[in-house]
Amino acid sequence: METIKKPSNDHIGYLDSIRGIAALMVLFYHYIGWHYHTTPIKWSFLVINGGDAVSFFFVLSGFVLSYKYLILDHPLEIYKFWISRIFRLLPGFAVAVLAMAFWWNYPITGVKLQDLFIDNNQGLYEELFLFRSRTRFYGAGWTLVIELLISFFVPFIIVIAKRNKQVMLPLMFCILIIGNGFISRFFLHFTLGVTLAAFYYEITADTFRQSVWYRFRWILLPACWALFSLRHINELSPLGPSLMTFLNYVQIDFFIISGFASFVFLGAMIHSPKAQKALDKSLWRFYGRISYGIYLIHWFVVSVIFDRWDKFVSLFSDEWVAYFVMMAVCLAVSTLLATIIHYAVELPFMRWGKRLVRKMKPSAAVVE
Q: What is the C-alpha separation between 94 and 138, in angstroms, rounded?
């Protein structure tokens, strides 16, 4: 008899761990590659691939955002969904943008404060509210633009998956063919995540072990790891003009390829109790809780370190000693600041958002 592994609550612990590990990958990726571009560092990106961890974050977001509605059958009200996402994403992002804005304008003077806040000559307010994809201060802000923008469309993808999950494959094909814009192509990543949620019970069922996917997992997973790191493999050993011409012709970039690889990785984790047990550790869960803060504030910490790199190096007898010591400092400071952001900014605003949502009248219910 088939065993269906139903979730026991609204929260999946090992997903926090996955999110925390991915955030740390982004941190180390940016630190390692910010100033040095040697061959050993390029090789390290095959393991610490923070660039394509963004693809994994988007696929994971698609899964997490649809989890309550497709797996736990909670009702979905579109306005409440949107309000919750705004309160989840914007406050922490505002802290990161303000930190970078102050750093850019250091030392702070009255004239600079007027230029920044009153005259808005630097476009601070546009960036704070992600208006028209403005990302002057916070370089990685383009990912938040995508995260928030596509979040507004996720409820409709959930509706499609809820009504007929078999439609998800042709839907992904249409997005792959039509979505050639920089932002629109990432619809695919979120749709991949929603698809995993739609087929959650099939993936976690014992019968999944009889599928082709499972039988060839020892080939599929290493192949997907290579695909996930393909951009860095290409930098170490170019793939050749013929293949690159073909990929350009069909409008498939490295983010799309790593998105499909992330889909396989996340599906494997959802199926495997052993992987879940290995991931579900207190340290990784902690970094999962503060992962959004890590992702946001590490950019500021790394910027400060390398903007003053010569000064920091002078404190040590060897440049590489400085490099690894400051890497530890980067991790420690980012962890501290991310923890503060989580408890002082993220959680209060999330609670306020939930209170606001509870007071809203039922409206625009798209999933019954």
A: 10
Helices in 108-186 by DSSP H: which ranges?
A: 110-113, 124-128, 141-151, 154-163, 168-178
The values of phi and psi at residue 193, to 5°, are -65, -45
The number of C-alpha atoms within 13 Å of 207 and in the hemisphere containing its C-beta is 8
Give the number of C-alpha atoms closer than 13 A to the C-alpha of residue 330, restricted to the C-beta side: 28
d(CA 135, CA 364): 32
Ramachandran category for residue 251: left, alpha or beta (phi over 0 → left; psi -120 to 50 → alpha): left
Residue 117 to residues 108, 123, 136: CA-CA distances in angstroms?
A: 12, 9, 15
- The arithmetic mean of pLDDT across residues 299-316, rounded, is 94
Measure Cα distances from 128 to 90, 111, 270 in Å: 8, 21, 35
The single-letter DSSP state of residue 9 is S
Burial class (CB in 10 A: 0-12, 13-18, 19+), 234: middle
**pLDDT tens per residue across span 45-69:** 888 988 899 999 999 999 999 999 9
CB 30 within 8 A of CB 50: yes
